Amino acid sequence: MKRCEWVTDEPIYISYHDKEWGRPLYDSDKLFEMLCLEGMQAGLSWITILKRRENYRQAFDHFQADVIAKYTEEKVNQLLQDKGIIRNRRKIEAIINNAKVYLEVRKEYGNFSDYIWSFVDGKPIINAYEKHEDVPAFTELSKAMSKDLKKRGFKFVGETICYAFMQASGMVNDHLIDCFCYNDIRKDEDFD
C-alpha cells in the first residue's frame, strides 16, 4: 500500500496518516485541539507531539476551551511539571490564551468551524503533488489565515503552522497523488 513519503514505519504515524491527516474535520472543538497541537509542534517534529497527544488531552481537559480559558497561574505551574507534555511556558500560556480567543470567535460566528473553513470557502482544496518536495510549507491562504488569527489574538499561528493545520484538518488534500489516501478522501467527500 503506497503512502506519502513522510510516513515512517511507526504504527502511530501510519494510523494518523491513514485515518486522520487530510480528512476534512468540521468539529469545532477538534479543530481547536488540532490548532493547539500544531502550535505545540513549533520547533519540533510532529511525531513528538503525536506521541504525547493523549497526555495533552488529559493535561488540558480534553481541549474544552471553556475550562482552559479559566486556568490560573497555579494550573500553569502544574502543567510545567507534567512530563507527558512539552513543558514550555510560552506554549502552555498560548493554549490558554487561544482558548479565550476561540470562545470569542465562537461567539461571533456561532462556531469555530464556520470561521476557519471560510478561508477555503467551506470546501477542501485538492492539490495534486507527485513528490514530497513539491508540497509547500505555506501558501497565500495560510498566510491570510495566520494574519487573521494573529489579529484576533491567537498565538503560535504562523503561516507554516497554519498550513500544517490546514493539511491535518483536511482543508487541503496534500496526500501525494500515488498515496492510497488521495483518491480515498476524494471519494469520501464526493468532489468529482
Ordered list of secondary-structure elements with their pairings:
Elements: H1 11-19, H2 28-40, H3 46-50, H4 53-59, H5 65-68, H6 73-79, H7 89-109, H8 112-117, E1 125-126, H9 140-152, H10 159-168, E2 172-173, H11 180-189
Parallel strand pairs: 1-2
Short description:
With 192 residues, the protein is mostly helical.
As for the number of domains, it is 1
Residue runs with pLDDT of under 50 for 5 or more positions? none
Give the CATH class.
Mainly Alpha
Largest sheet: 2 strands, parallel
Q: Which architecture name does CATH use?
A: Orthogonal Bundle
> What is the helix content?
40-55%
Strand order of the largest sheet: 1-2
Count of strand segments: 2
What is the CATH superfamily classification? Hypothetical protein, domain 2
- Give the overall silhouette: globular
Q: What Rg do the Cα atoms give?
A: 16 Å
SS class: mainly alpha
Beta-strand percentage range = under 5%
Number of helices: 11
- Spatial separation of the terminal alpha carbons: 23 Å
Q: Within the CATH hierarchy, at the fold level, what is the topology?
A: Endonuclease III, domain 1
Average pLDDT, to the nearest integer? 95
Order of SSEs? HHHHHHHHEHHEH
EC number: 3.2.2.20
Function: Hydrolysis of the deoxyribose N-glycosidic bond to excise 3-methyladenine from the damaged DNA polymer formed by alkylation lesions.
GO biological process, one term: base-excision repair
Organism: Scopulibacillus darangshiensis
